[in-house]
Design goal:
274 residues, alpha+beta, Dipeptide-binding Protein, domain 3, 2 domains, 6-stranded mixed β-sheet, two-stranded antiparallel ribbon, 9 helices, 10 strands, 16% strand, globular, SBP_5_dom, peptide transmembrane transporter activity, signal, transport, SBP_5
């Protein structure tokens, strides 16, 4: 299951932005500022579903159950959190750090991807309404990948990307969510063991435990806890899952079984033409 996300580099060289990106109130404010339904309507012909946390797979997705943290589109709530952080507005309504610097960052996206770029522009326009300036910068895909994972620390401030979830096995996502993961690109410094927040240590523990368990119900419970912790702390701003459609002629094809994977057929060896 692919994850459509906006991510902030918590190891960025700009000290003001680094402290801001590491503040959970800022990330929650950004989650409130994401107009997911607007993105789905504009880019997917409404064929999508809003997400507020890390959907794992059809088997382990906990969904938005009672108590599951969600940050629906609410610019007022986002602005309140920015106020709590102490980001003051000037006469034009733009926010500033305590040292007077403008709250401004560059968001990378993939050149040629209309969906990613449109999402980034929509997000930037909404953030401007609550005093945050975002510069959208489309780059070649290889350049984006290089800035995210080609160097330590990564050379980006924010990015709108899609993370391929593979076949949905939760173990595959350990590379992204665990502090020592090779794709833990929002804060590679976690792998050094310095300044690792408690919630990240909890994520590490839960993912290790679910990987060692052979009990499906126990894994489900551990992954439920994992998804809740991640959704509350928003290391990535989760946007939506795109929906897909599959069609076939029932009068001409037998044993057709659809799949959520990239391939159209789940068991092509048993499909036959009538």
């Amino acid at each position: 299951m692919d994850s459509n996300v906006i991510t902030f580099n918590q190891d960025t060289e700009d000290l003001d932005l680094r402290a801001l990106f590491r503040d959970v109130r800022f990330r929650q404010a950004m989650a409130y500022a994401a107009n997911r339904q607007g993105m789905i309507s504009a880019n997917l012909n409404s064929l999508g579903e809003s997400r507020y946390g890390p959907g794992i797979s059809e088997t382990f997705w906990i969904g938005d159950a009672t108590g599951f943290p969600s940050f629906g589109f609410n610019l007022g709530q986002g602005a309140q959190l920015l106020d709590q952080i102490g980001l003051q507005k000037d006469a034009q309504g733009m926010r500033h750090f305590a040292d007077g610097a403008l709250v401004e960052f560059t968001m990378l996206t993939v050149q040629g991807s209309t969906v990613l770029t449109n999402d980034a522009v929509l997000f930037a326009n909404d953030l401007a309404k609550i005093g945050v300036k975002v510069n959208v910068r489309p780059l070649d895909l290889n350049a984006v990948i290089d800035q995210l994972v080609g160097s330590r620390p990564p050379q980006y401030e924010a990015v709108r990307i899609t993370i391929n979830g593979g076949d949905g096995d939760p173990n595959l996502l350990r590379a992204v969510y665990q502090s020592t993961g090779t794709l833990h690109f929002w804060k590679y410094s976690d792998e050094t063991g310095q300044d690792v927040p408690d919630w990240q240590l909890q994520v590490d523990r839960l993912l290790e435990q679910q990987a060692q368990s052979l009990d499906l119900s126990e894994r489900y419970d551990l992954l439920s806890q994992f998804q809740t912790v991640v959704a509350q702390n928003q290391p990535m701003i989760f946007l939506y899952n795109a929906q897909g459609l599959e069609a076939y002629r029932a009068d001409r094809v037998g044993n057709f079984t659809g799949t959520v994977q990239n391939t159209t057929l789940l068991n092509p060896e048993i499909v036959f033409r009538k």
